[in-house]
Amino acid sequence: MRYALKRLGGSVLSDDEKITVIAEKFTGILKALGLDPDSPSLKETPKRVATMYVKEIFVGLKKEAFPKLTFSDFTKPTRSSSTVVVKNIQLVSHCEHHFVPMVGVAHIAYLPKDKVIGLSKLNRIAKYFASRPQLQERLTCQIAESLAHILQTPDVAVFTEMSHFCVQGRGVLDKESTTRAHFLLGRFESDPSFRQEFLWFFPEASMKKNYGETSQNSRLA
Ligand SMILES: [Zn+2]
């Protein structure tokens, strides 16, 4: 959780205060661009953008927004690795370099130790960390490290594939490229057979032949 905790130092402002401050600043942005913030169509825009930042797309900056968790006890079968896998978790995040969307999916695998988590909670945790200005690599890492912490298991693997609008809609204007990142912990990192199992669950992850041999938290494409 070290990344999560370090970056949650956070604001002491209430939500209403944040919205007021951001709306004022955004009015300044509109003016600087030569737009008229008093025009009928822009009049509500600063507050609308500020509310969207605080209550929706960056709500993951608030510790209290972390999902409520439910667990079940789990008795590990002696002869099975019992991998839990959730695929195709839909993610919408925002790149912190340009504050534009990056969208894609996360796949999560873990080996339960003494407890399993409600399945939808994996989706909610991934979406919580996506609801911040992010880097895809950090997002991937935060999901994996928080799950390892919550589930008290060192064995967690997370794979993400995302389209970045800062690549698609500006700059190089490449609409087709996607970015892949993975973060492997515990046996998924250290044990080749578990790494292979991860690849079996996520064949799309094996398109790069050196997958799993690159350093953690690295981009694959
Ligand atoms: Zn960007």
What do these coordinates show?
The protein has helices spanning 2-6, 15-32, 45-57, 119-130, 136-151, 165-168, 187-190, 192-201, and strands spanning 71-73, 84-95, 101-110, 115-117, 133-134, 156-164, 179-184. The chain is of the alpha+beta class and 221 residues long. The protein folds into two domains: 2-64, GTP Cyclohydrolase I, Chain A, domain 1 (Orthogonal Bundle); 68-207, 2-Layer Sandwich (GTP Cyclohydrolase I, domain 2), CATH 3.30.1130.10. It is elongated. The structure holds zinc ion. The site of zinc ion has 5 residues, from loops.
What is the number of beta strands? 7
Structural class: alpha+beta
Enumerate the spans where pLDDT stays under 50 for 5 or more consecutive residues: 1-6, 206-221
From the spread of the alpha carbons, the general shape counts as elongated
CATH superfamily of the largest domain: GTP cyclohydrolase I, C-terminal domain/NADPH-dependent 7-cyano-7-deazaguanine reductase, N-terminal domain
Q: What topology, given as strand order, has the largest sheet?
A: 5-2-3-6-7
Short overview:
With 221 residues, the chain is α+β, with helices and mostly antiparallel strands. The chain has helices at 2-6, 15-32, 45-57, 119-130, 136-151, 165-168, 187-190, 192-201; strands at residues 71-73, 84-95, 101-110, 115-117, 133-134, 156-164, 179-184. The protein has eight helices and seven strands.
